[in-house]
Predict the 3D structure of the following.
Amino acid sequence: MEIKDKSKEEIILKAAEVEFMLKGFHGAKTTSIAKEAGVTHAMLHYYYRTKENLFNKVFETKVSLISDIIVRSFANSHMPLLERVKLTIESHFNFLVENQELPRFLINELISQPERRKIFENKIEDVIGIVIPALQKELDDEVLKGNIRAIKAFDLILDIVSLNVFVFVVFPIITSFDSLSGNTSDFFENRKQENVELIMRRLKK
Amino acid sequence: MEIKDKSKEEIILKAAEVEFMLKGFHGAKTTSIAKEAGVTHAMLHYYYRTKENLFNKVFETKVSLISDIIVRSFANSHMPLLERVKLTIESHFNFLVENQELPRFLINELISQPERRKIFENKIEDVIGIVIPALQKELDDEVLKGNIRAIKAFDLILDIVSLNVFVFVVFPIITSFDSLSGNTSDFFENRKQENVELIMRRLKK
DNA sequence: ATTATCTATAGATCTATAGATAATGC
DNA sequence: ATTATCTATAGATCTATAGATAATGC
């Protein structure tokens, strides 16, 4: 057997990732994942036994990605708050450029299969429980100093996430209208700036 | 046969609506729709022949709702622009309160089943082609008069839609964190104001 | 006569595994 | 000896329809 760049096990996982992300758990079929991976259908079950199993592998990896980005976003605490918020928006946005199908996938599986929410909640709960109160305190301090306008940390985060995520969620649909004539990365760059602008104007006095 | 409030045909459609909205085309099963509707499985096929057919009935109704709201949102042209934008944000938000599962459903089916995009595009295309240029002109006029800051109509609409829609898309997930202790309608009311605030500050000089 | 309903079942599709065979690593 | 691979097929689930029967509207 020659040396392949990837083992079949990995190839199957990659193919599963693509199919699950695009079609969801129910829309994806183990037969077509196997076909896409270029292996016999039996191989898929040999390595992962069940469809459920294979899905969970994909799902957990994706959930981890999300919880990591939340933590990473609020690092760099030694920087003025407004600047840090700006940087957070940008790095969060950049992360989404690299993981465009991720939000839609998670949202969808979490809603259509509520039994899977626990996995998500467990990963994300602590992060939320720590990040929000800490941010709230910082915001309140700045408000007292008269530097920014009052806002709840939860609202600020939801503002940022809404603006950043939504473009990617609808991107495959709006492209078909071609209103964004021209190049995709210009479009994204423009959106990133627009989002920063919106949030900065919301916060600045 | 006694007089029922609804015919079986309608009951089936309603049950289908619920199941398709929640689980998508592939996740929904005609057997469980029939069960939910309290009819034998054969009745579903008697009235709608195929699953595809039944799905399309639901899908088209939902697409119409969306295209209607876009048109309605930009009525009331005899009103100062900023005020009109504010009203548009609010009425769009109110519409979403009444149709919370709608955006996620559409986004998802449109992405996982690209063959259905045409139905959507046809309904929405004209509306977009008329609304955006008209709005752009109005915005440009106000910019020249020195009343607002420059913005592309497309960006403004995407800003509004992002902020308004996203809360509902993730709502079933964030409720489980219970950060929004207290009542749901207060939470929504607060979000609506936050969104108006953001957009107004973006536009005002 | 037409419309509505049920039971039973065909036929398709999909997940999963059994069992045989080939390749690989000590 | 263990791991990887294939063919073949069982078994489950799901969509769809045939065919019989009951209800309804002229």
About this structure: Residues 1, 29-31, 41-42, 45-46, 49-51 of chain A lie near DNA strand C (CB under 10 Å from a C1').
